[in-house]
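Quick one, probably user error.
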């Protein structure tokens, strides 16, 4: 049995989500990492940009440790959804590198504070604003995994690539014909249900 270290467990799950999110951009063109693939504009680079701002706020500002680099798309007066897409002036490397710097900043917060340390989230309801590092870590892990799941779907829409991580797709190892037949069977089942 390994030693019991709740903070290390939380960091592991956060790191897995971070790496999965960034990995989803590998091998795609500049256009494919930026283009909106849902009616609400969801795109891969925008997801990374968004999560970097979220993490900087929750694991920085909340505990009196501002990230220190400007993120104007997170300001109160920013255009709605400004954090969910990359402008033509923002490069992929710039956004990913910033996210990695946010990780380092957040990791210092996690390393230096106890899980019971308190902070304040001013954008939450007044009765919920005082929080523990434990609660915020769970919140950020859930948020990052949620967006990594979005990235899974957006990547599949972009070029058909799917899977949870590079070393383990967590999908059946079947050929294209099997997947095509599988998709057809699901569609048939959905239509059959409507005829009941």
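Nope, works fine. Designed sequence:
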């Amino acid at each position: 049995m390994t030693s019991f270290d709740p903070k290390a467990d939380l960091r592991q799950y956060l790191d897995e989500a971070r790496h999965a999110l960034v990995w989803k951009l590998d091998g795609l063109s500049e256009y494919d990492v930026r283009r909106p693939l849902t009616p609400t504009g969801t795109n891969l680079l925008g997801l990374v940009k968004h999560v970097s701002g979220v993490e900087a706020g929750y694991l920085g500002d909340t505990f009196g440790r501002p990230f220190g680099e400007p993120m104007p798309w997170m300001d109160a007066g920013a255009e709605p959804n400004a954090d969910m897409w990359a402008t033509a002036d923002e490069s992929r490397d710039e956004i990913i590198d910033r996210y990695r710097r946010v990780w380092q900043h957040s990791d210092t917060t996690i390393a230096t504070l106890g899980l019971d340390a308190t902070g304040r989230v001013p954008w939450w309801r007044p009765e919920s604003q005082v929080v523990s590092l434990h609660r915020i870590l769970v919140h950020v892990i859930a948020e990052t995994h949620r967006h990594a799941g979005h990235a899974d779907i957006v990547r599949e829409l972009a070029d058909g690539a799917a899977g949870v991580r590079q070393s383990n797709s967590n999908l059946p190892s079947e050929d294209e014909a099997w997947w095509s037949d599988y998709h057809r069977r699901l569609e048939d089942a959905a239509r059959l249900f409507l005829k009941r």
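The CA atoms of residues 182 and 188 lie 10 Å apart.
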